[in-house]
Amino acid sequence: MLLSSLLWCYAFFWSLMPVLGWSSYVQEGVGTSCSVNWRSRESNDASYAICLMVACFLLPVALIVFCHFKAYKVMSQLSEQAKGFWGEDAIVTQDTLATERKMTWIAVAMTTGFLFAWTPYTISSLVAISDPGLVSEIAASIPPYIAKSSACYNPFIYMFMYKKLWNRMKRMLCCKKVQVHPEIQAS
To answer: Which of 73, 93, 159, 171 has the greatest number of C-beta atoms within 10 Å?
Structure first.
């Protein structure tokens, strides 16, 4: 809850700054969405845009890579412990190795999805900052739609790769009673 609250405050800070005068919001591309003023050459707008890219793209990418790397190291250590304790052919070891592979693929898919969504937008924004006339109105409209679509497909990536969640979603959508594990129900 604390981390979620901090992230909401972080996002609120960056979205509120243009309202308070550090840059501004303008219509983007063909005028179907709003964003910060990427095309402005004023130092106020350019400084905000660069800080926004660092704080809301580069920092999250670095955090994602760092966290996935740490999680991978922990899963590798658990796999090695399972091999040493139960042996390489034991069911517990095989389950641990399968979980490690699954978590690795989920991490790769989620990270790739994030980069696929936000990298084109970041690059087009950088281009717009450096040379505002280089990106056409139509070309400026496409990256924001791709970026904003990540909120839609990230849950699907996780749902399709995590079998328990997929099965529970199917039961829920088919109006079947979902059994809650007693430990989860108690908390």
So the answer is: 93
